Fold these 4 entries.
Entry 1:
Amino acid sequence: MHAELQLDNQICFRLYTAARLVTQAYTPMLTELGITYPQYLVLMVLWEKDNQPVNDIAHRLLLETNTVTPLLQRMEKLGVVSRKKGEHDKRQQIVSLTEKGRDLEQKAFQLIPEGMQKQMSACPLKLEDYQNLAHELDTIIHTINKQP
C-alpha cells in the first residue's frame, strides 16, 4: 500500500467530511426555514446585493450557470426569488428577492448564527482559529480554482 493513497493521509477526505458534517449541522435550521443549503447560499448572495444576473450569482458561488439555473427555478417556485429578463441584454436573467425572500434574512439571522454556535460549542477552536482556517481554505480554493 502506498502511503500517499491511505485515507488518513488525504486532506481531501478531511475537507469533504468537514464540509458534509457542517452542511448537515445546518439542515435542521434550514428545514425550519423551508430551504436547502444550496438555496441558503444563493439567498446569502442576494442578501448582500439584490437584483443580480444569474452569471454573477454563479460566479460568486464558484458554480456553473447550468448548476445555478435549476436551483433558481426551484427557488422561484418557493416564492423566495423572481427572475426577469435584463433591461439592456434580454438574454440575461436578473434574479431578485421577493418579499418572502427578504423576510427569510431576518428569520435566518435569528436562527442560524446562534444555532451554529450551539452546534460548534464543544469544538475547542477559538474565533481566531476559525478566521485562520477561513483564510487557509480561501488560499486552497483560489489556488485550485485558477488551475485549468
Entry 2:
Amino acid sequence: MVINVPQPNVRWKVVDLFSGCGGMSSGFSAYRDYFEIIGAVDREVAKPGKGKHKAASTRCNATYARNIGIEPKNADLMILDPQSYRETLGLESGELDILLACPPCTGFSQKNARNHLVDDPRNQLVARTALFVEAFLPDFFVMENVKELLRGKHQHHFQFLLDKLRFLGYSVYADIHELSNYGLPQRRERALVIACRSRGLPESPLTPWPAKKTVWDVIAKLPCVEAGEAHASDPMHVSPGMTSTVRSRICAIPKDGGSWGDVMGDPNISEEEKQRLLIPSMFRARPGSFPDVYGRLEWDAVAATITRECGHVGNGRYVHPEQDRLLTVREMSLLQGFPPDYFFEGPLSAKYNQIGDAVPPLISAQLAQQIIRLKLDRTINLPTQLEPRAA
C-alpha cells in the first residue's frame, strides 16, 4: 500500500495481546511502512466446553502467522509475566510504540444470561492488561470489546484499568461506537479505548463515513457456490454441507431478508408442512422472538452482528440473501472487514469462530491511521480500503 505522506525513520513497534486470528494486527500491518509488529500472544482456547469436555482450540495462531508474518506466543496472559515477556522481545520500558489488547468479551456480553448473575473469571484479564501497560509503558494503548465493558454490570474491571492508565500518566479516550457508521457492512456496537502517554487525544478516533456499506456492496459479486463445495479459485469461499431437512427449511425462507417467522405466518403453507419445516422451539416462541434464527441477510442493509457462533444457520441471520446455504467463510470475513485475500487456517468450524471473535480489520486500520496522524502531529489523508497484501 503506497501512502504519499512522510514516513518515520524507524517503523513503530507494535505488540498484540489476545491476538486471535489477527483482526487488530491486520489493520496495522496494512500500513507496513509505519508499523512493525514484533510480538503477539494468544492462548488459542475457545469458550469452555460443556460438562467434562475441554475447551476446543481456536487454531488462530496459525492463521495469525500466515497473514501477519510472525508466530504468536501460545501463553495464558493471566499467568505470563509482563516484564519477562517485554525482556524476551528485547524492549526496555518505554520503547514500545503501540500495545494492542482485546481480551475475551464473552464474560461481559449481555447476551449471555449468566453474566447478569456471575462475574466470569476471564473478565479479570481486562485488569490484568494494566500490568502489561505498566511493564511496557507504550506510547499508545488500544483496546476493543463489547459495549458492556464500559456500561455493563461488570464495568469495575475497566475502571481498574482506567485508574491505572491515568495513574501512569495516560490521556484516555473510551466510548461506544456503532461500527456500521464507519464503513463496516454489519451491525456491530463496540467499546473502543485508546490511551496515549505523550499527547492529548481527539474527541473520537473514528470519522463517520458518508453512507453505510451494505451486504450487496460487499458480497454480491462473489461467484455462486453450493453448500459444502469450495470455489476453485478461492478455498475460503466455502460453507458447510447440510442435511436435506435443513436445506428444505432454508429453501422455504423468503429470499432477501426472510426469516422463519415468515414461514410460520404464511397461510399458503399447511400446518403439517410447517411442522416438517420448522423446529419445535419455533412453535413455543413468542411472536417476534429470535427473528434472526435461520434468517437470510438483506441485500440493501448491513449484515447482522457476526459472532463466534456464526458457523451454523441456526445461530443467527447468516443465510445468504438468495442462495440456499450459510454464508461462506469468505463472505463472512468480508462482512467482518477482512482483506479479500485473508486466509484462515484450521477446520471449517474454527475458521468461522476466528472471524466472529476478531476485531474488524477495516476498523483497526482506521485506528492505525489515527495513530499515524498523532505520531506525525499533522493532518494526513490515508486510504481506508484494505487492499490485498503483497506476497
Entry 3:
Amino acid sequence: MKLELQNNRDFWAGMMFLGTGVGAMIVARHYPFGTTLSMGPGYFPMVLGGMLVVFGAFILLRGLRKKEKIQGSWSLRALIILPLSVLGFGTLMNLAGFIPALAAVVVLSAASSREFKFKEVLLLTLFLGVLSAAMFIWGLGLPYPLIKKF
C-alpha cells in the first residue's frame, strides 16, 4: 500500500490545523492559564489550540483513509493581494480608523478573486462595516476610532 501524501487534500488541511494549534499552544505556554471562571491570558489560546490539534488529527486521519486529490492550481493574484490587504488593514487602522480599514480589507480581499462584482462587494462592505462596528466598538467597547480626522 503506497501513501500518496503530496496531493492529498485532507492530509494537508489536517497538517495546517495541527501546525496552527501547536503553534498557538507553544506561544501561550508561558501565559497564566487561570480557571474557567477566571480566565487568564493563556486560557483561550491553549483551549483553542488544543481544539485545533484534535480537529487537525481527525482531518489528517481521514485524509490517510480517503486519499482525495487536490484540485485546481495556485492563484498568484490571491497570493499577492491577500497578504497586502491584511497589511493595508493594519496600516489604515492607525492612519484612517476602523471603517476605512475594514472597507479596504474587504475590497482588496474580494479583488483577489476573478469573480469580483462591484455591487456585491459594496453591499458586503456596508453590511460588515455596520455589523463590525456594532459588535467590536459599541458592543465590546474596543477603543478604535470609527474614522480618524486628518
Entry 4:
Amino acid sequence: MNILYFASLKENLKTSSENIELADNTTVKQLKTLLADKYSEHFFPDNILCAVNQEIAHDDLVINSADEVAFYPPVTGG
C-alpha cells in the first residue's frame, strides 16, 4: 500500500511517501495506530486527516493493498 504524507507531517517524518504491507481487513484506525507506534503518537493524533483514494476516510473504513492512503496534519487556525 502506498502511503503519502503532506505538509508538516512530511517534513517531520522526512519522507513524502512509503510503501507498507498490511493484513487483510485493516482499518484506517489500525493503520494510524501502526504508524503512531512506528513514528510517535505525536505525529498521528486522533484528529489527523486521512484520505483513501482521494476521499476523506473515517477510522472504521477497511483499506486494502491497492488503496492510496494520504495523511494530512491537523490544521490550526487563528
